[in-house]
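Title: Prediction job returns without error message
Component: structure pipeline
Severity: low
Priority: P3
Assignee: unassigned

Description:
Job completed but the reporter wants confirmation the result is attached to the right record. Sequence as submitted:
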Amino acid sequence: MTAPPSLAGSPDTQATAAYRRLRAEILDGRLAPGQRLKVQDLAALCGAGPSPVREALAQLAAEGLARRIEQRGFRVADADPAGLAGLVRSRCLVEAAALREAIARGDAAWEDAVAAAERRLARLPRSLDPTRYVTNPAWEAAHRGFHQALLAACAAPPLLAFCERLRDEAERYRAQANAVAWPGRDVAAEHAAIAEAALDRDADRAAALLAEHLNATGEFVRRALERRAATPAARRRPTARLAAE
Protein backbone atom coordinates (compact mmCIF):
# COMPACT_ATOMS: atom_id res chain seq x y z
CA MET A 1 0.00 0.00 0.00
CA THR A 2 1.34 3.45 -0.89
CA ALA A 3 2.09 5.61 2.10
CA PRO A 4 0.16 8.89 2.34
CA PRO A 5 1.87 12.28 2.10
CA SER A 6 3.52 13.51 5.29
CA LEU A 7 0.99 14.56 7.88
CA ALA A 8 1.03 18.24 8.68
CA GLY A 9 0.20 19.63 12.10
CA SER A 10 1.10 18.98 15.71
CA PRO A 11 2.56 15.74 17.09
CA ASP A 12 -0.88 15.04 18.61
CA THR A 13 -2.46 15.29 15.15
CA GLN A 14 0.21 12.98 13.74
CA ALA A 15 -0.30 10.49 16.58
CA THR A 16 -4.04 10.38 15.93
CA ALA A 17 -3.57 9.90 12.20
CA ALA A 18 -0.89 7.24 12.78
CA TYR A 19 -3.18 5.43 15.22
CA ARG A 20 -6.03 5.35 12.71
CA ARG A 21 -3.78 4.14 9.90
CA LEU A 22 -2.10 1.41 11.94
CA ARG A 23 -5.40 0.29 13.44
CA ALA A 24 -6.85 -0.14 9.95
CA GLU A 25 -3.74 -2.06 8.84
CA ILE A 26 -4.11 -4.46 11.79
CA LEU A 27 -7.88 -4.96 11.40
CA ASP A 28 -7.53 -5.64 7.66
CA GLY A 29 -4.73 -8.14 8.25
CA ARG A 30 -2.05 -6.22 6.36
CA LEU A 31 -0.11 -6.17 9.63
CA ALA A 32 -0.35 -9.83 10.59
CA PRO A 33 -0.79 -11.30 14.09
CA GLY A 34 2.55 -11.61 15.84
CA GLN A 35 4.32 -9.33 13.35
CA ARG A 36 6.97 -7.08 14.86
CA LEU A 37 6.03 -3.41 14.66
CA LYS A 38 9.21 -1.48 13.83
CA VAL A 39 8.84 2.20 14.63
CA GLN A 40 10.99 3.45 11.75
CA ASP A 41 9.12 1.36 9.17
CA LEU A 42 5.76 2.44 10.54
CA ALA A 43 6.83 6.08 10.61
CA ALA A 44 7.58 5.86 6.89
CA LEU A 45 4.25 4.13 6.26
CA CYS A 46 2.28 6.77 8.13
CA GLY A 47 4.32 9.81 7.13
CA ALA A 48 4.82 10.69 10.79
CA GLY A 49 7.68 10.97 13.23
CA PRO A 50 8.82 8.21 15.59
CA SER A 51 7.28 9.81 18.70
CA PRO A 52 3.71 9.99 17.31
CA VAL A 53 4.05 6.38 16.09
CA ARG A 54 5.13 5.22 19.55
CA GLU A 55 2.14 7.01 21.04
CA ALA A 56 -0.13 5.32 18.49
CA LEU A 57 1.35 1.91 19.33
CA ALA A 58 0.80 2.49 23.04
CA GLN A 59 -2.87 3.26 22.34
CA LEU A 60 -3.21 0.12 20.20
CA ALA A 61 -1.64 -1.92 23.00
CA ALA A 62 -4.16 -0.47 25.45
CA GLU A 63 -6.94 -1.68 23.12
CA GLY A 64 -5.44 -5.15 22.87
CA LEU A 65 -4.63 -4.89 19.16
CA ALA A 66 -0.88 -4.76 19.82
CA ARG A 67 1.26 -6.09 22.63
CA ARG A 68 4.32 -4.53 24.20
CA ILE A 69 7.38 -6.77 24.40
CA GLU A 70 9.66 -5.79 27.28
CA GLN A 71 12.74 -4.02 25.92
CA ARG A 72 11.82 -5.17 22.40
CA GLY A 73 9.10 -2.80 21.25
CA PHE A 74 5.70 -3.92 19.98
CA ARG A 75 4.10 -6.76 18.03
CA VAL A 76 0.63 -7.20 16.58
CA ALA A 77 -1.58 -9.14 19.00
CA ASP A 78 -2.06 -12.82 18.23
CA ALA A 79 -5.30 -14.12 16.67
CA ASP A 80 -5.68 -17.73 17.79
CA PRO A 81 -8.78 -19.95 17.64
CA ALA A 82 -9.01 -20.09 21.44
CA GLY A 83 -9.37 -16.33 21.63
CA LEU A 84 -11.96 -16.39 18.86
CA ALA A 85 -14.32 -18.55 20.94
CA GLY A 86 -14.42 -16.02 23.75
CA LEU A 87 -14.86 -13.18 21.29
CA VAL A 88 -17.87 -14.82 19.61
CA ARG A 89 -19.45 -15.57 22.99
CA SER A 90 -18.96 -11.97 24.07
CA ARG A 91 -20.53 -10.68 20.87
CA CYS A 92 -23.56 -12.92 21.30
CA LEU A 93 -24.12 -11.59 24.81
CA VAL A 94 -23.63 -7.87 24.24
CA GLU A 95 -25.22 -7.60 20.78
CA ALA A 96 -28.28 -9.52 21.97
CA ALA A 97 -28.64 -7.09 24.87
CA ALA A 98 -28.29 -4.09 22.55
CA LEU A 99 -30.76 -5.58 20.07
CA ARG A 100 -33.36 -6.17 22.76
CA GLU A 101 -33.02 -2.57 23.86
CA ALA A 102 -33.29 -1.33 20.28
CA ILE A 103 -36.43 -3.37 19.68
CA ALA A 104 -37.99 -1.98 22.86
CA ARG A 105 -37.13 1.63 22.03
CA GLY A 106 -37.10 1.73 18.24
CA ASP A 107 -39.58 4.03 16.50
CA ALA A 108 -40.89 4.14 12.92
CA ALA A 109 -37.69 5.78 11.69
CA TRP A 110 -35.66 2.91 13.18
CA GLU A 111 -37.93 0.38 11.47
CA ASP A 112 -37.49 2.15 8.12
CA ALA A 113 -33.70 2.26 8.58
CA VAL A 114 -33.46 -1.47 9.40
CA ALA A 115 -35.63 -2.44 6.43
CA ALA A 116 -33.67 -0.20 4.06
CA ALA A 117 -30.32 -1.49 5.31
CA GLU A 118 -31.40 -5.11 4.84
CA ARG A 119 -32.64 -4.44 1.29
CA ARG A 120 -29.44 -2.61 0.40
CA LEU A 121 -27.32 -5.50 1.66
CA ALA A 122 -29.44 -8.14 -0.11
CA ARG A 123 -28.95 -6.45 -3.49
CA LEU A 124 -25.15 -6.61 -3.34
CA PRO A 125 -22.99 -9.64 -4.19
CA ARG A 126 -20.72 -10.81 -1.39
CA SER A 127 -17.87 -11.53 -3.81
CA LEU A 128 -16.50 -9.69 -6.82
CA ASP A 129 -15.73 -13.05 -8.44
CA PRO A 130 -18.51 -15.65 -8.84
CA THR A 131 -16.03 -18.54 -8.79
CA ARG A 132 -14.33 -17.71 -5.47
CA TYR A 133 -14.50 -15.24 -2.62
CA VAL A 134 -13.01 -11.84 -3.43
CA THR A 135 -13.85 -9.03 -1.02
CA ASN A 136 -16.59 -6.70 -2.25
CA PRO A 137 -16.02 -3.40 -0.38
CA ALA A 138 -19.59 -2.26 -1.09
CA TRP A 139 -20.99 -5.44 0.51
CA GLU A 140 -18.69 -5.04 3.50
CA ALA A 141 -19.85 -1.45 4.04
CA ALA A 142 -23.53 -2.39 3.66
CA HIS A 143 -23.03 -5.35 5.98
CA ARG A 144 -21.64 -3.20 8.75
CA GLY A 145 -24.39 -0.67 8.11
CA PHE A 146 -27.09 -3.33 8.50
CA HIS A 147 -25.83 -4.48 11.88
CA GLN A 148 -25.37 -0.91 13.05
CA ALA A 149 -28.94 -0.09 11.98
CA LEU A 150 -30.29 -3.05 13.96
CA LEU A 151 -28.77 -1.74 17.20
CA ALA A 152 -29.05 1.98 16.53
CA ALA A 153 -32.13 2.57 18.71
CA CYS A 154 -30.34 1.20 21.78
CA ALA A 155 -30.11 4.22 24.10
CA ALA A 156 -26.85 3.10 25.70
CA PRO A 157 -23.85 4.60 23.85
CA PRO A 158 -21.21 2.75 25.93
CA LEU A 159 -22.87 -0.57 25.07
CA LEU A 160 -22.95 0.33 21.37
CA ALA A 161 -19.29 1.36 21.52
CA PHE A 162 -18.41 -2.01 23.06
CA CYS A 163 -20.34 -3.79 20.30
CA GLU A 164 -18.31 -1.88 17.70
CA ARG A 165 -15.05 -2.75 19.42
CA LEU A 166 -15.89 -6.45 19.43
CA ARG A 167 -16.96 -6.26 15.79
CA ASP A 168 -13.62 -4.69 14.87
CA GLU A 169 -11.80 -7.50 16.67
CA ALA A 170 -13.87 -10.06 14.75
CA GLU A 171 -12.86 -8.36 11.50
CA ARG A 172 -9.22 -8.93 12.44
CA TYR A 173 -9.82 -12.64 12.91
CA ARG A 174 -11.67 -12.93 9.61
CA ALA A 175 -8.85 -11.20 7.79
CA GLN A 176 -6.51 -14.04 8.79
CA ALA A 177 -8.74 -16.80 7.41
CA ASN A 178 -8.67 -17.94 3.82
CA ALA A 179 -12.01 -17.96 2.02
CA VAL A 180 -13.86 -21.22 2.54
CA ALA A 181 -17.00 -22.77 1.11
CA TRP A 182 -20.06 -22.58 3.35
CA PRO A 183 -22.24 -25.50 2.19
CA GLY A 184 -25.90 -25.13 3.01
CA ARG A 185 -25.61 -21.60 4.36
CA ASP A 186 -27.58 -18.65 3.01
CA VAL A 187 -26.18 -15.55 4.71
CA ALA A 188 -28.66 -13.22 3.00
CA ALA A 189 -31.54 -15.30 4.35
CA GLU A 190 -30.04 -15.10 7.84
CA HIS A 191 -29.92 -11.31 7.64
CA ALA A 192 -33.49 -11.17 6.35
CA ALA A 193 -34.74 -13.40 9.18
CA ILE A 194 -33.03 -11.27 11.83
CA ALA A 195 -34.51 -8.10 10.35
CA GLU A 196 -37.98 -9.63 10.14
CA ALA A 197 -37.91 -10.72 13.78
CA ALA A 198 -36.68 -7.31 14.90
CA LEU A 199 -39.38 -5.48 12.93
CA ASP A 200 -42.00 -7.87 14.34
CA ARG A 201 -40.77 -6.76 17.80
CA ASP A 202 -40.02 -10.38 18.67
CA ALA A 203 -36.96 -9.77 20.82
CA ASP A 204 -36.46 -13.40 21.85
CA ARG A 205 -36.49 -14.66 18.26
CA ALA A 206 -34.34 -11.81 16.98
CA ALA A 207 -31.72 -12.32 19.69
CA ALA A 208 -31.66 -16.08 19.08
CA LEU A 209 -31.27 -15.65 15.32
CA LEU A 210 -28.48 -13.11 15.81
CA ALA A 211 -26.64 -15.49 18.14
CA GLU A 212 -27.01 -18.36 15.64
CA HIS A 213 -25.70 -16.08 12.91
CA LEU A 214 -22.62 -15.03 14.89
CA ASN A 215 -21.90 -18.56 16.08
CA ALA A 216 -22.16 -19.99 12.56
CA THR A 217 -19.58 -17.57 11.23
CA GLY A 218 -17.38 -18.09 14.27
CA GLU A 219 -17.30 -21.83 13.58
CA PHE A 220 -16.32 -21.37 9.94
CA VAL A 221 -13.62 -18.88 10.84
CA ARG A 222 -12.31 -21.22 13.57
CA ARG A 223 -11.99 -24.09 11.09
CA ALA A 224 -10.28 -21.84 8.56
CA LEU A 225 -7.82 -20.56 11.16
CA GLU A 226 -6.98 -24.09 12.27
CA ARG A 227 -6.42 -25.19 8.67
CA ARG A 228 -4.27 -22.12 8.09
CA ALA A 229 -2.18 -22.86 11.18
CA ALA A 230 -1.65 -26.46 9.98
CA THR A 231 -0.60 -25.37 6.48
CA PRO A 232 3.08 -24.55 5.85
CA ALA A 233 3.47 -20.83 5.14
CA ALA A 234 4.92 -21.47 1.68
CA ARG A 235 1.73 -23.27 0.61
CA ARG A 236 -0.78 -20.72 1.88
CA ARG A 237 -2.87 -18.77 -0.55
CA PRO A 238 -3.04 -14.99 -0.14
CA THR A 239 -5.31 -14.00 2.71
CA ALA A 240 -8.90 -13.20 1.75
CA ARG A 241 -11.51 -11.76 4.11
CA LEU A 242 -14.50 -13.91 4.97
CA ALA A 243 -17.58 -11.89 4.19
CA ALA A 244 -20.04 -12.64 6.88
CA GLU A 245 -20.39 -11.82 10.46
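Comment from assignee: result matches the submitted record. Strands lie at 36-37, 66-69, 73-76, 127-129, 132-135.
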